[in-house]
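Reviewers of the previous submission asked for a worked example of the structure-prediction workflow described in the proposal, so we include one complete record here. The input consisted solely of the amino acid sequence. No template or homolog information was supplied to the procedure at any stage.
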Amino acid sequence: MENKTKKLVDTFIQKTSTSIFIFLLIIVTLAIIFKNPASRNNLVYQTKPTIAPPEAVQKVVSPAVKQAQKDSLNKAKFDLQGPLICDYANRDLTATAYIKSHLVLVKLKSKEEISKILLKGDCLYQWVDQQKSGTKSCGISPYLPLIDSLTKMNLFGGLDGLIGSMSQSGLASPISPPSVNNLLKSCVKKPVDDSLFVYPDNIRFIEKPLLK
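From that input alone, the workflow returned the following structure tokens.
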């Protein structure tokens, strides 16, 4: 059964046509299966009963430490329900992902431009700020349950294996697999504004096949 299922995935991966679709597909796939590896051991504090006068001075915790503790507590298992905000940056690119109620917006900022990818309903919308046209590719929803089932079977060796498998297949991505992994690990629970998931009405979206 696993061999047959893996064969279906290999066929699907080989037919994927655009790098943008691959990137967002990775984001969506990993969002479904991602299990946050961050340990929360550092959040467990051992205290010993002490007898102290009411006026005893309490230990002062710096604002930076408080914020780090808050962010760690906010981290949770990945799901498409959210709300989640993810941030990652390297020398060439800053990536931010917003997830809420099965809607996903990925913003990629480079030195030259700011591009956005929106997963909404059955379609992927891609556009670049300050440009008058973008692309629209529909038909993604039938693949999501398949990917969800395959990843739950732990094919490809989990998160790192899935990213590596796609990379070895020669599929281009705007950011490298390790960067995708780091992006997902950065996600925390935060409010997400619904207005982010609206594509601009002043851009002409050209229909583009999802698969060749």
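Residues 2-35+77-192+202-207 form one domain. We consider this example representative of the routine output the project will generate in years two and three.
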